[in-house]
Amino acid sequence: MSARPRPVPAPSLDERGDAAAESRAEAIEAAAPPSGMVEVRGVSKFFGDVVAVSGVTFTVRAGVTALLGPNGAGKSTLFRMMCGLTPPSRGTVRVLGADARTDRDVRGRIGLSPQQDALFDRLDALDFVKIAAATHGVVDPGAAARAALGIVELDPDDDRPVSGYSKGMRQRTKLAAALVHDPEVLILDEPLNGLDPVQRRRMIDLLEDLGAQGRCVLVSSHVLEEVARLGSRILVIAQGRLAASGDYRELRELMDDRPHRISIEADRPRDLAASLVSSGTVVGVRIDGDVVVADTLEVDRLGREIAPLAKGLGARLRQVIPLDEDLESVFRYLVERR
Question: CA 60 to CA 235: how far, in whole Å?
């Protein structure tokens, strides 16, 4: 797999056709990587006067990619357009090089697990997944359903109706139905929602295995911890727009107009804070007990100079920790800047 490209800010495309915004979008599209398994180009979706998705462009390859955003950000609408369930109002969506809305063959190569918990509650899991297999024209629906349930660690001989399943078991049943026809692209809308910690870990492991098989696995979530644990490539959606893309450390590089905040625990914190200010390494400091909280625009320089400064003062460094490298702070920043 080719190296991940350096993230670029997403286009801000005015819905009334602002020429400058469109030029920026075209420039980003021209710089986009070669074709992937899913390609979204300049896509907008309107529902009357409501703009659900606005000028979104990205490319997704094999492996796990997370679509991160708060509820109502446009994630489910994007997924519906990828599956061909609704057309874009503007732009193009290609899955495996084709338009799923008009190409029946490519629809058969996509597996969808919707956010809605809409199962046939009177059926057991095996019958439910068999229906999904038959819908996709699988030659032996029963064998395929058993295999898919095995993948998600559910017992195909459990004859309880799915109405009696836990939330985690229902999520896995939906995933089995999405997998039953062996799709190349998996689109999973909030698949970790409602899972307990053990179930979540197992689901994440399964998603990573599916991505490692060469499938394109798109997973949406509004929970920051889930995406951080996936360790995936991230597309951040805010208010219907693509706010950024990359992994969360790469996304932090987009925040260079805001100081990095570093926690420095050491002896003689006041002397260390004064020395940092005098050196010009920081733009602000705060002292909290033995901890100096420093804001810097030159985090690499601070990393090089903190030890010599402390040594010169005879101060013992205990730990140096970045306070804003976590996904939550990155996401909050990206959403607020839109």
Answer: 10
CA-nearest of 103, 67, 71, 74 to 89 is 74
Residue 330: pLDDT band with limits 50, 70, 90: low
| pLDDT tens digits for range 212-230 | 999 999 999 887 777 777 7
Nearest to 312 by CA among 268, 264, 261, 281: 268
Q: In what order do the strands lie in the sheet with 63-68?
A: 110-113, 185-189, 216-221, 63-68, 233-238, 241-246
Per-residue pLDDT, 98: 95
Could you tell me what percent of the chain has a pLDDT over 70?
Answer: 81
Within the chain, how many helices (H) and strands (E) appear?
A: 12, 13
Nearest partner of 149 among 122, 119, 170, 118, judged by Cα = 170
Report pLDDT digits (tens) over 52-79.
999 999 999 999 999 988 888 899 999 9
Asked if 144 and 184 touch (Cβ cutoff 8 Å), the reply is no
Q: How far is CA 318 from CA 15, 283, 289, 301, in A?
A: 52, 22, 13, 19
CA distances from 97 to 28, 42, 144, 252, 283 (A): 20, 16, 27, 32, 49
The answer to whether the beta carbons of residues 259 and 284 sit under 8 Å apart is: yes
DSSP string, 274-311: HHHHHHT--SEEEEETTEEEEEES-HHHHHHHHHHHHH
**Per-residue pLDDT at 4:** 33
Which of 68, 59, 4 shows the shortest CA–CA distance to 236?
68
Average pLDDT over residues 234-240: 87
